[in-house]
Design brief:
With 415 residues, this protein is mostly helical.
């Protein structure tokens, strides 16, 4: 246990830990509050999907820029600036909702601002981790961050259901804005130097270097490509149609908050497992973890009772976290530190590149064929893609059995 907690002895990691955990409490509140704000305003599944897509499009447009900036500047300053912008966007949404002046286009525009800020925050926050701890405890650092953030999501999702039911979506989003501001304060205190710039500091040169690092690793781009299809169908159906099912058949915001809380609890359980989990084939184990991600869509399609859906969401959370932990550890050990944020930006761009399409299509498809058929169809497609990813990882492992990411002696991995 002392070894598992070793990263917390490092000052910069403690501040990163506090900053990311704090902002994640609000990030867990926001999806519940925003979904029910839109349903209160228009009751339209299509409007909800378009607002969610509005957040993702700027995220995609600026991810590569965010990766380059995070490799040039002190990464904590990039994170701080992004959190300040997100606090402004969420605070503006809260004010509009509380005063009764919100319209759908307002929510879409401010969601786009928040998404643009996230495009800078994510590459910086992922790339800064190796700068805060020694390499031998990198996996423990990833696991502790995941545990803290997922624990925050449990509290945030549960709090979201209460706040929305008791005070309304506007006040819930106001809390989200406050957590972004507090998180910015923590990361501002970090002392993280900028990495030495490349000899060719031009934008296109930086972009080309990051692309070459990304495409030179077959295991990386192949799994990212498959993951993009998986996330498109599962996130679109879950995020758009899940709140609709909860609102119409399960009792509203409290029920949806409970389901999201169970999913976050599964993420925590996966993180606890990840503290000691040393699979012989890391990325084969990672892709096996994503096989359960489509399962909540099946449960929502019936729908089962809230406890049963929550239980399925818990299992999906465990698998999702195992994948994420092994994936991030592999990337952080395989990619040079001064190029890591750029590679992360290509990873994220590929992984979520099709998610806005999923958000935009979920509502119209459900209107055309029904919510149940859409959920089950998305689950079937997602399961098929997850199986392809697992088989691909196994085949790649057979072609590179000497590569540590595929097959290694657990005793040789960092303890």
């Amino acid at each position: 246990m002392r070894r598992s907690a070793a990263p917390l002895r490092e000052r910069e990691f403690r501040l990163l830990f506090a900053g990311r955990t704090t902002s994640l409490v609000g990030s867990a509140i926001a999806p519940v509050a925003l979904a029910f704000a839109v349903l209160d305003l228009t009751g339209s599944k299509t409007d909800l999907g378009l607002i969610l897509a509005s957040r993702e499009i700027p995220l995609l447009l600026f991810l590569l820029v965010g990766g380059i900036i995070a490799d040039r500047l002190p990464r904590n300053r990039v994170m701080m600036s992004a959190n300040v912008v997100s606090a402004f966007a969420q605070g503006s949404i809260a004010a509009l909702l509380i005063t009764g002046n919100a319209e759908v286009w307002h929510l879409a525009a401010l969601a786009a601002v928040n998404g643009g800020a996230s495009a800078f925050f994510f590459p910086a926050s992922a790339g800064v981790i190796p700068q805060t701890v020694p390499t031998p405890i990198l996996q423990q650092a990833n696991a502790l961050l995941a545990l803290a953030m997922n624990s925050a999501m449990i509290g945030g999702a549960a709090l979201a259901g209460f706040l929305v039911a008791a005070f309304g979506p506007g006040w819930a989003i106001a809390v989200d804005a406050g957590t972004y501001a507090l998180g910015a304060g923590f990361v501002a205190l970090m002392r993280v130097p900028a990495l030495a710039p490349d000899k060719r500091p031009h934008f296109l040169s930086d972009l080309g270097i990051g692309w070459r690092e990304f495409r030179s690793r077959t295991w990386l781009w192949a799994i990212v490509l498959q993951f993009s299809l998986l996330l498109m169908v599962t996130m679109g159906a879950f995020s758009v149609l899940g709140p609709v099912v909860a609102d119409e058949e399960l009792g509203g915001a409290k029920a949806w908050g409970l389901i999201l809380t169970a999913q976050a609890a599964g993420l925590v359980a996966g993180g606890l497992l990840g503290l000691r989990f040393r699979p012989r084939r890391m990325l084969v184990a990672a892709t096996l973890g994503i096989l359960v991600i489509p399962a909540p869509l099946v449960a929502l399609g019936f729908p089962l009772g809230v406890p049963a859906i929550a239980a399925v969401a818990f299992v999906a959370g465990v698998g999702n976290e195992i994948f994420g932990l092994l994936w991030h550890t592999t990337m952080q050990q395989e990619v040079p530190a001064d190029k890591l944020s750029r590679v992360y930006s290509f990873d994220a761009l590929g992984s979520i590149g099709l998610v806005p399409i999923g958000y935009a299509l979920a509502g119209p498809v459900a209107e055309a064929v029904g919510v149940r058929a859409t959920l089950w169809g998305a689950a079937a497609v997602g399961a098929a893609v997850a199986c392809v990813a697992a088989v691909s990882a196994h085949q790649l492992a057979r072609t590179r059995p000497d590569h540590w990411a595929w097959q290694s002696d657990p005793e040789e991995l960092p303890a």
